[in-house]
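The record is kept unedited without comment:

——
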Amino acid sequence: MKHVGEDCAGAIQFIRPERREQLRTESAKSEIQWLTEQDVAERLRLLREDHSAWRIARDTGQFSLAGAQPKTALLFRKGRWGVPSGRTPTTHILKPPMGEWEGHAENEHFCLELAARMGLIAAKTTVERFQDEVAIVIERYDRIPISSGFIRIHQEDMCQAMGLPPTRKYESEGGPNIQDIAELLRTNSKRPDEDLSAFVDAVAFNWLIAGTDAHAKNYSILIGAQGTIRLAPLYDVASILPYPGIHVPKLKMAMKIGGHYDLRMIGLRQWKAMATQLRLDEEQLVQRLQTLAAELPDQATSVARRIERELKHPIIKRLAEAVTKRGRQCAQLLEV
């Protein structure tokens, strides 16, 4: 378990047997290794060079998060960054811009900002500079501040919630589809109507921006007291559009919409079929899609203008232009 970590997604902790009694009696004020700006910069630099370097040898607490993109997690408290151990959780995820899938961190930051501007519930992100290093900083929504610090909230992605291995995250590989997730929320959520609506918004948003990797592990539920369940905010969202050599006619979604994976095959008829499959009001769903598509170009331009002041990266302009064009195309596809 030393390779998994004491700080994971959600409320779970994996500990070595010899650490069990220590954590059981440990006070809430667990040991925190506070970092200087230079310390954080060195960690980000090392992470860019070695994607597995999310912790260094002298760290007491380990952290573990799934996903292919390099990242690390730290505690932020009273203006200081630190490495917590024991019961104290990390509060933020830091992702350095990487060469692979050029600008992916900037892409994710843009898309989450755009989603929030369009009224979707999304993870909060900022851009932070540590000396000559830059990181996209994501506030962990599975952490809740209290007077004495932070507490963990348990999270499960949709594969975990349905008892499926991560190798089945794509619908085409036997993973959950949109109807499966909708039924899980309708049956188990504390506020099923709100969560189902938010989930459909998220599916629509990924369709609008060509977020083709929106598989079951990129949607999650938060599990609270007495097993109450709510849909987690949107996270790990990125558009495929700004990358060279990408052709929309060849793109496929991670989950079928109205019976189709192919992005070019999904339009008004498929969304109406989806409304029927999910037992939703067809007219209301189409109106919501039309509203999101109409808002997308202006919101994308506005978000890009603000982000470009923080991040000098060419992908921001390409992304904004591609998403704007895509939004207008989708608006035409949704004309009744």
Summary: DSSP finds nine helices and 13 strands in the chain. The two ends are 55 Å apart (CA to CA). Confidence is low (pLDDT under 50) at residues 53-64. The first strand starts at residue 32 and ends at 35.
